[in-house]
Write a structure and sequence with these properties.
The complex is a heterodimer. Chain A is of the alpha+beta class. Chain A has six helices and five strands; from the N terminus they run H-H-H-H-E-E-E-E-E-H-H. Classes of the chains: A alpha+beta, B mainly alpha.
Amino acid sequence: MKKLRLNLVFITVLFFVSLYSNTIASTSSNFIDDITNKASNILSSKDTREIKIQELVKIGENSVDIDGIGFYTLGKHRKNLNDNQKNEFKKIFREYFLKSFSTRLVEYKEAKIVVISEDIKNEKYTIVKSKLLATSDRPEVAIDWRVYTRDPSKPLIRDLIIEGLSLARTQREEFNSIIINNGGDINALFTSLKEFNKK
Amino acid sequence: MIKRLKIFLFILLIQSLVVSFSHSEEREVKDCFEKINRATFAFNMALDKVLFRPVAAGYRKLPSPVRAGTSNALNNLSNLVTIPNNILQGDFRSAGNNTIRLIINTTIGIVGIFDPANALGFEKLDKEDFGQTFGAMGIGEGCYLVLPVIGPSTVRDAVGSIVSMSGGDAWYNVTVKNDTQYFKESDYYYSKLTEGVDFRAKNLESFDSLEKTSVDFYATVRSLYLQDRDRKIKNLKVKTDTLDDSDWDSLDK
C-alpha cells in the first residue's frame, strides 16, 4: 500500500514536471513564432522606413531583456560600476540596442523565419531553433534564440545565435575591446555609445 | 629557402603552442599585434570598398543558377583540402562521403557545377582545413592576425595555410607548384578570388549592417572570426560554448 502511494506521488510529480516543461517549451516557441511573424509583416509592408523602425523598436522593447543583455555585455567590467554608472549605462545601452536592432533588421525586406524546435536547458533558459529561409540572394541561415523563462508568463530574448555565432558574446568582446584600449576606462565606452546614439 | 620556411613554420608552431587557448569564463583574445592588425584591417576595408564590394554587388546581378553553379564548383574543389584533413582528424566516414561527392560531382556534376551527389544521399558536409586539424589536435590558436587582402586569421590558421601551400592542397600543387599541361598558375588565383567574391556577395547586407551598427567594427569581426573557427574545430552544427549557462548565471546573482 505504502509502495502504491509512493508510486502515485511519483507519477503525479512527473506529470506536473512534464506539464510545466511543455508549458515553457510551447510558450517559448509560440513567443518566437509570434515575434518573427510580426517582424516579417512589418518588413514586408509598404510603410515608410521610419514607421518600420518605430514598429520594430516596439517589438524590441516588449520582447528583449535589454537590461540583462546590457549587463552581460559589460562582462567583468560590470563589477566596477557604481549605482549611478549602472543607471547611466542602462539608459545609454537601451537607446543603443534599440537603434542598432531596428537599423539592422529594417534592411531585410524578405525575412521569413520558421521555428523548428526548442531545447529546454533549465527552468531559466530555453533555446528555440529556427531558420531564416533562403532567398535568391542569400542562403538559409540558422538562428537560435536564447529565451529567458524565469517568469514563464513573460519570456524574454537574451541572445541570438546566428549560424553558431552569439551576438551577445560578440557585443561583449566589442565593448571589452573599447574599454581595454582606453586603459580600462568604462567612460570611453559610454562616450562611444553616446556618439553612436547621436548619429 | 626551404630551410628558412621550415624554421618559420617551427617558430609559428611553438608560438601557437605556447599561447594556448584560454578556457576561462570570459576568454581573453590574444591580439598580440593589435596595432598592426588594426592598420591592416583598415587597408582591407578600403580595398573592400573600392574593389571587393562593387565586384560582389555586380556578381549578385548574375542569374541565380550561375551563382549557385559557381558556388558548387568552388565547394567541390575545396574537397581536395577537406578530405586529407578529414583523414588527419580520424573522421574516415566524412572522408569517404566527401571522396564520393568529389568523384560524382566532378564527373556527372560537370566539374562540380551541379550537385547530383546530394540527391544520391551523400550530403554536403562542413569544409575542413589544416588550421582546423591543428585545433582538433589541441594546438592553441595563438595570436590573432589580420592578413593583407586575405583578412582575419590566427597564427595556427596561418601555419595551416602555409601547409596547404607546401603540398597539402592538391589544387595548389597542380596549378601553382607543379608545371602541368592542364592547368595554369592563374587558375588557382582566379578560383581563390572567385571564392572571396562569392562569400562577400552572400554576406553583402549582413556585413554592411554589421559595419553600420558596430562601435568597434574591428573587434566585432575579430570576435565573429574566432567564434566561427572555434565552432568549426569542435565540429558543432550550431551550438557553441556561448550557450554555456555559466556565462549568463552571474547576471542573476
